[in-house]
Q: What sequence folds into this?
């Protein structure tokens, strides 16, 4: 069986020894533990030199070649979907003026990385891609665009690396900005979410939807004062993790809500269902009198109609307990959760919680626009890091090796003094667009060259010895079957292309 | 007219007015000037609200969709080449421990962005990709790897945006680490540089090579004290921009070198040529006695042999004035310069100076390794931002429009009340992997839908009216020719695929 590079085919199962020798670091935590010294060590010494601790900053990690390949597969699936839906890509700086981020993240603000004042502007690292997007729209006076953005964001959070929570992590966002007829873009965001999660074969998932206006309406008719809104939201949001009784006692005990109001809320937020629930609540004598709730329920009805035309209505649940933390949502909100969690032996579940989420935020762009002009927006964010940890666990469990290079041909020689012949031939292959390598030795043994093919998964070897040079042929070897055929030199490139056709 | 993505077919030629209105910002500086208020403005007010200045941090910029597409083409050319040469990708955090960057960049150190001390580790933004690569090798005890890394780096430099100098910019690096036979990896780095610059069709370019050891040898036999090395290097490095007399007077006047030493240096550093120059210097009675120079010249001879086998010897010049700034080079150094510069009317040349460079740095990994173990490295960095500004100028001059979305089919209706039919059909296309859009209106006019296709470059429209629904057909319209054909619904996807074949 073929073994890819070293770096190339980093094993995903950690080797027996305490540390995988060079050249291929294993994926993930293997990488983090593959160290001679503890991360806490203040500094080593090399012949008396004081060295800094050899590590990456807390909550960050390097991505080994195998990591990069796996991540690229995942991001490509998302990008394919975004392009299928006609989105354009933008990019914004990792740095933003600090002032841009102020007042957008509620509690999250304390997790923002700030740069030192080195003279000039006060800067911070971006916390998400949504606020920079809104800043971009306002700054360029763009009133409609469908865009995606896949990039790293930064939060000084408590890292939980095994569950995919890092301080530097990717976000993968798709947003539709503009004044359009109701719920058409919103339904498309849910379709995008559904397509990506299906494509990645993560197993069964459920999409929950709710609407901020419905929640506000419920709280209003239950007599919750406005000032309690966020506190009650955050209690309600825990209903997927704890029973109603506990949520109720948190509301009454900790948050000081009246028992009657709490009970009344409980009648609503434990409801979930499909279109029929929307219809029922539209008939609810109290809720239907609340303007906010009525608008939200009307849009929810439209949303379910569109989702059923998209063929995904059955996997979407109207769930009145879904609240989502961010301040800036103004209408529909949604979240996808995996129904079945995969666990490694002795490990925590890799993919707890939601793997994608989003909602409508009609007020954010107006916060940046000098004249307060609003640009309605709705968007979805795919939780790449969580999904990545699930795929990583799965790959590790399967023992599959990832090929990290794409080399198609190794140019090899069986005798000494043939380096010039190798250099000439490999150069011809490069110029013909063929992915090719040689080993960087003047006179390598043929066996080592063939071993390198097996180690790194190179499917073909083009071998030239003295006889082949005299006969103007190249011996083309199929590495897996070990079959060799002499090919006239001038036909070599065509023959290689023919063999590499899918 | 319905303009969805609007940004979708951003014109690259700035419009007549001073500022391109939304929705499509132009490329590059257009984007920067497309602002209602000066960048220096402290804050605007929106109905009495104080807003922060609506801008990106100094020396950074947003990338519009057209920008992103152009940049992706450029990066794809580099990545294709790196993969053709068997390299694997790695990624490292944007943040590094400050200690990692100390003592690696000489004068550059003052340009490092430092993060505020918010408790915990002291951090900085990476200044290049080479030092993080060396840190990665040492940390993971990797002794050989061929890797590439394309990512953003950060320098608090004086921005010169029209010439592609930013504070946040891409680097695009290819490096070969490991103990190998001399000059084989070095020659491959030059081949990589040559392939990428040729592929991008930047016009004629020249690759200059030199060797740190040859320079050191020259200075030694001319009687330059060691402590003058960097000062003399930096003077010599200016020989491509000013005549020898000026360089000489800088050495003697400013740097305090003796006139005799300067004249002696002048005899060497004005030399440039090919293999014959290497041979001549190997016979030079003084230089051939210097151990360093002799080693460097021996390697240079080997390099030219290999380059000629790669078919690129003719475009490489051994240039004794090439010095390159970074401290960490230990052997061969190289740089590519465009021979002909393109200028826009009334503009500075877009691509002054080098567009790629690199060299051998055998000591850097050892600076991180606790035991000081050395891993010899050689690498090349492609100057993406400079090349990008050249391509941007060229594109702007050509008036070519860049398509920023890839949508293949617009699903359209000619009558009212057909939104459900549109939603159903577009969903079928998405599920079949076809890139498709609808406009987000309940009852859009057909003309506006077709106009949207023309504006954004969508080649096909799938039109369903009441008659088509009754007949179970779809009218497929070729947007450029305006030809329409009825296709049975069940054959639509096959027909679309057939038409989209290249």
A:
């Amino acid at each position: 069986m073929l073994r890819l590079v070293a770096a190339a085919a980093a094993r995903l199962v950690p080797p027996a020894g305490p540390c995988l020798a060079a050249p291929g670091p294993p994926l993930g935590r293997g990488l983090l533990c593959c160290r001679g010294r503890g991360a806490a060590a203040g500094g080593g010494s090399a012949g008396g030199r004081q060295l800094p601790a050899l590590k990456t900053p807390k909550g960050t990690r390097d991505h080994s070649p195998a990591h990069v390949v796996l991540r690229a597969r995942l991001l490509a699936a998302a990008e394919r979907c975004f392009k299928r839906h006609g989105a354009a890509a933008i990019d914004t700086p990792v740095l933003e003026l600090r002032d841009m981020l102020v007042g957008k993240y509620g509690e999250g603000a304390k997790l923002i990385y700030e740069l030192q004042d080195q003279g000039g502007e006060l800067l911070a690292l971006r916390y998400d891609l949504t606020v920079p997007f809104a800043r971009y729209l306002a700054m360029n006076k763009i009133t409609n665009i469908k865009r995606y953005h896949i990039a790293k964001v930064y939060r000084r959070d408590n890292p939980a690396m095994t569950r995919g929570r890092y301080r530097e992590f990717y976000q993968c966002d798709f947003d539709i900005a503009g004044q359009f007829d109701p719920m058409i873009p919103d339904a498309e965001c849910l379709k995008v979410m559904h397509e990506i999660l299906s494509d990645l074969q993560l197993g069964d998932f459920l999409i929950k939807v709710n609407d901020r206006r419905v929640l506000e309406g419920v709280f209003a008719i239950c007599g919750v004062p406005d000032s309690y809104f966020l506190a009650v939201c955050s209690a309600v949001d825990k209903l997927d993790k704890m029973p109603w009784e506990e949520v109720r006692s948190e509301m009454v005990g900790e948050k000081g809500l009246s028992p009657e109001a709490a009970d009344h809320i409980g009648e609503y937020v434990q409801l979930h269902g499909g279109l029929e629930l929307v219809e029922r609540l539209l008939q609810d004598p109290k809720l239907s009198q609340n303007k906010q709730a009525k608008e939200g329920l009307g849009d929810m009805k439209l949303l379910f109609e569109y989702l059923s035309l998209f063929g995904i209505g059955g996997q979407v649940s109207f769930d009145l307990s879904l609240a989502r933390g961010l301040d800036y949502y103004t209408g529909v909100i949604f979240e996808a959760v995996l129904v079945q969690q995969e666990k490694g032996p002795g490990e925590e579940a890799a993919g707890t919680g939601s793997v994608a989420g989003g909602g409508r935020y009609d007020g954010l762009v107006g916060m940046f626009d000098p004249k307060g002009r609003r640009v309605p927006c709705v968007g979805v964010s795919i939780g790449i890091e969580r999904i990545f940890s699930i795929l990583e666990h799965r790959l590790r469990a399967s023992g599959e090796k990832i090929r990290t290079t794409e080399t198609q041909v190794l140019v090899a020689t069986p005798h000494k003094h043939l380096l010039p012949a190798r250099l000439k031939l490999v150069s011809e292959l490069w110029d013909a667009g063929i992915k090719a390598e040689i080993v960087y030795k003047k006179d390598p043994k043929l066996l080592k060259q063939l071993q390198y093919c097996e180690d790194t998964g190179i499917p073909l070897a083009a071998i030239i010895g003295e006889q082949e040079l005299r006969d103007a042929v190249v011996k083309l070897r199929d590495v897996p079957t070990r079959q060799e055929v002499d090919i006239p030199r001038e036909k070599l490139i065509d023959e290689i292309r023919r063999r590499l056709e899918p």
User: Anything to note?
Assistant: Residues 1-48, 344-351 of chain B have pLDDT under 50 and may be disordered. Chain B has 17 helices and 18 strands. The first helix of chain B runs from residue 29 to 33. The two ends of chain B are 30 Å apart (CA to CA).
